[in-house]
Amino acid sequence: MRKLQGEMDHFLRKHFAFLASFWNKFLPNGVPNNHSLDFLEQDLGSLNPTLDPKDPGPSSSLFGVLYDFTARNADELSVNRGDKLCVLKEEGEYVLARRLSGDPVVGYVPANYVSKIGQEPVAQPVWYISGISRNKAQILLLSSPNRHGSFLIRDSESNKGEYSLSVRNHAKVRHFRIYKDPGGSLYLEKEHMFSNLEQLLAYYTVNWKVIQSPLLQPCIQKRSSEADQWERPRSEFKLWRKMGEGCFGEVWEGMWKNTVPVAIKIMKQVNMRDDFAKEIQNLKSLKHTRLIKLLAICSVGEPVYIVTELMRKGNLHSYLNSIAGKELTKHHLLSISCQVADGMTYLEEQHVVHRDLAARNILVGDDLACKIADFGLARLLKDDIYSTSGNAMIPVKWTAPEAAVYQTYSLKSDVWSYGILLYEVFTYGQNPYEGMTNQETIQQITRGYRLPRPNNCYPEIYSIMLDCWKANPEDRPTFLILREQLFSIYKWAPHPFS
Ligand code: ATP
Q1: What's the rounded Cα separation, in Å, for the pair 442 and 129?
Q2: Fold for domain 2-116?
Q3: How far is the CA of 72 from the centre of ligand 1 (A)?
Q4: Domain Protein kinase, which positions (predicted)?
Q5: In this predicted model, what pLDDT tens digit does every residue of 194-228 receive, in sequence order?
Q6: Cα 165 versus chain centre, distance
């Protein structure tokens, strides 16, 4: 009996290696899971290179830079995203590289900041794929290298929060609905409930006859080189301190490979993967110094991490309300307004409407650097207007009347929100329309009411606010114009230290 059990264990482990963590938990004699995070740790102080720019070394090869990196000591090399490097030596978590453009300087760059040019995209087996429709799942499973017995779990299209199991059975794909009971248990048949998808898969891997479709191997999804460029193993990140929480999940301050301080957004629930996917897509395609920068993604397994640059002072709304925020001069407030207008001008050039511009979605870093964040709602405008079908979760007090009432978003509705943001900035974080409900706000706005001029606000700035709140979207300025106006006010406004 013991022998039979041993053989069974061996068989399951060998053939269903993708469920390793499950077997380790439930088959006690198994190989210990030695996925320690600590093997990556390295004494960075021991890096002491001898640099010879003339010696490319035998293993030199061409790499591209994925992220800007600023050297912190004389041995390191500052590089910008897109630079080409000749890598002379790979040393643990660093590569010794020579820059191929500009001066031929040599120095160390973190290995995760570069990627080999021309490297083939890697194909990875994965059993959970988010944001994939029934049709796409079918096409994927029927295409090579997938074969009979390949399977995947996807979000159910018709029942939000539930899943479907798609399995290739020779030349056909069969789909099974995975139900969720009110307690959160998952099941295909009511008599077999599971607390997670991994357990469910483990059961039907062994009892496949019930569904008459063997689950032989997880689907192989060819990952594009773009996806590989951002994807990093979760073990590279350490979480330090929770900094905040939004409706998608928690945000933590953390460290990447013990060297780079980062912000890590951790997804709350699997069924929010779609919303995350949109935010990630926007972060990947939009690049500007005034926009929060995506550094990495961990989307293999749970929970999903979105890793961005760390903005130590948190969101602008809280910062303006803090003791340090209250000490900001009008000149500082102008600088913040100019930076946001600069970032929004970039979005305008890209025809992207943010839809949730507000002080809470601006992040503040050292030296009062401000960056626009929260692209969860951002959309590329195909025409000039983006319409949504519902108005759930609209931040009414920041939203232009035509967007709040008719859900028609445009760059000009972002301009309205920018006016509200100016109000937040020049009132040191006061909430707009204090004491009014959302309904009252819309009514008052439609009747022509506008927020009053904040105390000590330059009249020129208030006049810009009023321009942003013109009833007819066409009459509102563009961000390009706003940026010019604000920059010129910034230039002539008395500087507190001059
Ligand atoms: P939602 O995403 O629900 O619209 P939100 O913008 O408040 O709401 P998150 O983007 O999840 O939610 O961020 C929550 C909080 O975490 C922010 O308000 C901010 O204080 C902090 N935070 C987010 N990203 C960073 C970052 N890169 N650096 C520093 N703090 C951050």
Answers
A1: 41
A2: SH3 type barrels. (2.30.30)
A3: 27
A4: 237-498
A5: 988 888 999 999 999 999 999 988 888 765 544 55
A6: 27
